[in-house]
Amino acid sequence: MMNAKQEEIIWKSLDGFEIEIPSWGFAQTGTRFGKFVQPGAALTIEDKMSDAGQVHKLTGCCPAVAVHVLWDFPNGKQSAKEVAALAGKYGVRIGAINPNVFESQQYKYGSLGNPNPEIRQAALQHILDSIDIATETGSRNISLWFGDGSNYPGTANIRRRRAWFAEALHTAHERLIQGEQLLVEYKPFEPAFYHTDIADWGMALLLARAAGPQARVLVDTGHHYQAQNIEQIVAWLLAEGMLGGFHFNDRRYADDDLTIGSIDPYQVFRIFHEIHYFTWETASEPLIGYTIDQSHNLKPKIEETIQTAMTAQELYAKAALVDCEALAYHQEHCNLIDAEECLKAAFATDVRPVIEAWRLSKGLPGNPLTAYRESGYQQ
Ligand code: PSV
Ligand code: MN
Q1: Which of 141, 169, 301, 335 could form a disulfide with 296 if both were Cys (CB 3.0 to 4.6 A apart)?
Q2: Selection from 264, 251, 253 nearest residue 295 by Cα
């Protein structure tokens, strides 16, 4: 049985938890082998905002939509106000701005790491334009991911590319206004398969530092080697004051972009636990952008997004239940079993009835998924 104090902890954690949903989670997507088209999937930016609005209306925890500049801003900077207005029309706002320097033909051999200075400049210009969009839409985060890298040993000058990245990110940083942040995302593989220019959190951290004080690291859970201890990376970045945000998804093999917590919910719980533990220990609230980065390929897209938001809330609330004081004591005294049990007890707690009560108190449906199915929106 849960006691009143635990209920209060869950309640408080839910009040402070929001997760951004990606506009690209509503569009037709597939794998490199093809697409399975879903009827009713978003075709336009207005469709995407409308779908996002549904998710937020039912869950109450997804007020912002992460957008991709090339996919969502047909006229680049010119469409910033328009897209922001569309978001407002559907009860959401624009979240993280994602420049796209990986799709255009010119980036075949890289963007900021391309040996051709004109192409590096074009990529930088797109990033600067994306920062201007963030300023127009009032978005805090500009999320940078690069497909740069090489497929064969000896084909790229790794050190020179590192220097080009550092220089360009520093220039981009100068464009930020107060309150904006550059988030540097890393990935060890794909689309490049021999080396990627920002392969891990250490490289992202060094580049974020080179960029300037308003740059941080973004952790995409799918962007790690098998068995890597992601929560340790999170703990280190927190300690360094360099954790800027997340792209959440789950995976079994590579960057599978599956639903959060569908394969390993305990891992997401452990990540959230490190954040709660840091907050408890330092009595400070780190500013972290939680975002979903999934590909809703087979499941119905809006339902999967709702399922995602609900799962994220559950795991965040469970992690908040860890008795930090007891945990600190047991760690100090090397009481291994008792320390581990602090995590296991919290993870095993069924928080769903309390979350349902929290939702009802906010005028939200107790079960957003059922409410969505009954709403007729999909039809
Ligand atoms: C790359 O795999 C990535 O995680 C980046 O965040 C991109 O912006 C996103 O996926 C595109 O789907
Ligand atoms: Mn990502």
Answers
A1: 301
A2: 251
Sorting pLDDT into bands at 50, 70 and 90, what band is 59? very high
Tokens of 52: 């996002």
The model's pLDDT over 8-44, given as tens digits with 9 standing for 90+, comes to 999 999 999 999 999 999 999 888 899 989 988 999 9
145 lines ligand 1 (CB under 6 A): yes
Question: How much of the chain exceeds pLDDT 70, in percent?
Answer: 100
257 lines ligand 1 (CB under 6 A): no
Burial of 2 per CB tally in 10 Å (0-12, 13-18, 19+): middle
Ligand 2 is a single-atom ion; what residues have CB below 5 A from it? 220, 247, 293
Cβ atoms of 245 and 271 within 8 Å: the answer is: no
Nearest CA to ligand 1 atom 1: 145
Give residue 100 CA to ligand 1 midpoint distance, Å: 9
98 bridge partner residues: 68
Cα–Cα distance list, 198 to 89, 152, 192, 254 (Å): 37, 16, 11, 17
Spatial contact of 278 and 238, defined as CB atoms under 8 Å apart: yes
**How much is the average pLDDT of 105-127?**
98
Contact of 372 with 302, CB cutoff 8 Å: yes
Which atom of ligand 1 is nearest to 24's Cα?
A: 12
Q: Look at ligand 1, atom 5, and give the residue with the nearest C-alpha.
A: 145
Q: Kindly provide the b/e burial profile for residues 104-133, where b requires at least 16 CB atoms within 10 angstroms of the residue's own CB.
A: eeebeebbbbbeeeebbebbbebbbbbbbb
| The two three-digit tokens of residue 280, written as one number | 């408890």
pTM over 0.90: yes
Q: Which atom of ligand 1 is nearest to the CA of 255?
A: 2
Task: Kindly calculate the radius of gyration of the chain based on its CA atoms and give it in whole angstroms.
Answer: 21
